[in-house]
Amino acid sequence: MSDMQDKAFLESIVKAIVGHPDDVVVDRTVDEMGVLLTLKINPEDMGYVIGRRGQTAQAIRTLLKIVGAKNNARVNLKIHEPEGSTRGPRRERSEHGERAERKTMKEEGLEDPMDVSEIENLTI
After folding, report:
1. Region 78-88: what's the mean pLDDT?
2. Cα(94)–Cα(7) distance, rounded to whole angstroms?
3. Is the pTM of this model over 0.70?
């Protein structure tokens, strides 16, 4: 089997899910830690590759680990965050590593902007 099989595998998966397949570039480096595949994509396609809560990226990493295990190599994926990507700010974590809870509008001291007085008296 070819050493470049993992790179071709990653390219084929990513090109199938992004909107700009011609912009997909995979760099492959090998060191004492194993194989590192660096994925560079169009900024507009970041959401497709990452997925909700990172599920798509995690699935791709799992598949790459299987390909690596088949070839007796440790394969890791790094997704290059291009300039101009639209990722929002990360939520802060507590000192124990849990994500900070989101506050409700009431807890933030904000008024509820929706007038529900018409709906409260609605009869069906």
Report:
1. 71
2. 37
3. no
